[in-house]
Amino acid sequence: MLARRYLLGLLLIMSSLSGFSQTTESAKAIAQSFDTYRQQTIQEKLFVHTDQSTYVTGETIWFKVYYVDATLHKPLDVSKVAYVELLDKEQKSVLQAKVELSANGGNGTFFLPASMNSGTYRMRAYTCWMKNFSADFFFEKNLTIVNPFKTLGLPAEKSAPAYDIQFFPEGGNLVQGIASNVAFKVADEAGKGVTVRGGIINAQNDTLVRFQSHKFGIGTFTFTPSESANYRAVIQDAQGRSVTRPLPVVQPQGYVMRLEEDGPEKLKVTIRTNLSGINQIYLFAHTRQEIKVTEGRPFQQETTFSIDKKALGDGISHITLFDGNQKPVCERLYFKRPAQELRIQLKSDQPQYASRNKVTLEAAVQASAATTNKASLSVSVYRIDSLATSTTDNILNYLWMTSDLAGRIESPEYYLQPASADVTLATDNLMLTHGWRRFRWDDVLTNKPALRPFLPEPNGLVIQGKVTNPETDKPVSNVMTYLSTPGRPTRLYVFRSDTEGRVRYEMQDFYGPKGIIAQTNPEDSLNKLTIDSPFTTSISTNRLPEINFNESHTTQLQNRSVAMQVQSTYWGDEIIRYRYPEIDSSAFYGKPPESYLLDAYTRFPRMEEVLREYVTGVLPRKKDGHFRLAVPNLPYRALFDEQSLVLMDGIPVFNMDRIIDFNPLKIKQIDVVTNRYIMGTAGFSGIINFMTYKGDLAGFLLDNRLVKLDYDGLQLQREFYAPRYETPRQQTSRLPDGRTLLYWNPNLIIDSQGKSQVDFFTSDQTGTYLVEINGLSSDGQAGYQRTLFEVKNVAK
């Protein structure tokens, strides 16, 4: 008997250990799948600091792009191009720019033309790699643009409230017979929270629960659905207007999650279910895809997990529950306030200034000794009034809060202030109503490499296209394609289409508006080559609010418009200056073995005579009644058997008769490469490049099957200009100064002690001016600071 009891006890212990081992291994499998997915799908974030948020047409938007990895918020140096757009209320792109990125980010401008309508516009920014994911991952910011020369059509007032009302059961679902914490959010058409109160009623019109919003139209209530019936919420706003909405469908079976504070150091996660036969569950937590908690355990009808807050990273963490089959069944968010930030001290030398007086700004960055002088800072100084108000958009709010939550976040700075009971409650409510992640669990758990059609651009701007059969519209592979940029310097890019028919050209030194010409070999002329727009057509789900202007803004709008016109009239030549980058001026083939400046030789009326008489590296020959241009294969003293690559101003030409018939007096120079030239997957039997005087083809007739496009390269850097009043003569100048943007610097330089000092001059525009500064350290600490000063007229 004793031996039997001993054996039974041993079997129970072994069974328990086996179950524990299985639970541990399953939890590890989830973590391993997640880590594999994370390594294959690096996540990027962009933040754009604009000089202000309200503009009139005729002004310029100045902006700085910060580029970081989405996990640690450290500056990235992978993608070299950011795509920045301005979208109107129909989600159509009205302005676009390709901004060059470096380890310090990038910067650019948008000039607002007089053709734009007044309204709220969405600025968004993304990289090519980010196009593989939802448009909700892109940076977005609302800007107000007013056209003072077009009548502003204000929307008519609506008698009935058009509220967006949503309910969010904690963990995901309402489950029959289990108490759930249900969050709700009520917002108006502009996305602003509405203060409400209400109740939950059943089919018999009995009131089961009463509730009211806490902050920004968000609140919670506890509710236990007794059956899978329909429940309704009756909601009343501050004006007494009522609306009714259905609650989410009640699930007959499932799981319910509840997250609570368990003292200052712990979180308690309680899991309840009405399912039977559940043996084990797994809890998984990550902070911006960095694994923090992985735990599995046997499960009864109710199980509690304890999470040490120190185990979680700063910012938003996702806490996910998996069942015994490793399927996600519940999820919610938790926010941990950042312990560190880039502290910036900012002050002006005076609180008040007269017109045309010098302002000295001092900024000091407090960070670790290793990163103090490696912070990237941008600063803007602009006038605020009833038209242009200060904004809550800053890099600190965005990286820690807005970028990791779905939808519009009203007053994100509220949640980052020092903790209090109200702030803690409001923050938890926000986490319940904005659940969102940058991946799908199905993609993670399949353990298969994800197919990403859009690749990063690590070496600069990439132009992409596709080769298809025009009759079937199916992709055609293994077709050699060429892309040229006419002009100086000579640039040629080649690419053989892949299995999906895609072509990809890595552009070198491609700045400003240019023309591009793309083509295939003559033997592939029946195929269709198209060039894609690099800007995505995907849109986010966020709504644009209506412009909020009325008659009270008329005076400020007129003043702003007049100031803009004054600047354009009197300072136009000064305020439009560009900084041109240093680029390699040599052709793509480098210094050719032979180069001929034709003006140094006797001119002949036919190209054939020119080539035969003194261009020793090119031998014209006829075959079947058509010319071929042969190049000697040096140093072997034999001609190439294949036709050489012949270019006219860098554009491949395959009809040599057109070259021979072209007027040689229009050709300035001929370069000849007298050896085999390898370019990617292509090899050329020598190169002959005919160059006109202006690099504009000089009327040379190209093949009509070519694809010709006007294409904007990387945006040229525009220099911010502001007049200085160093002398009495400058101060008394009668040239008006209508600037409302006094200073903009996207790359503020700080010294080894973390300090910087800049100066600028006030304009003739009096009022209150706001100084805003955003910053990011090399170790991922973000910071923001602002200060005010006054400009007043002083009697002389």
TrEMBL record:
<keyword id="KW-0732">Signal</keyword>
<feature type="signal peptide">
    <location>
        <begin position="1"/>
        <end position="21"/>
    </location>
</feature>
<protein>
    <recommendedName>
        <fullName>MG2 domain-containing protein</fullName>
    </recommendedName>
</protein>
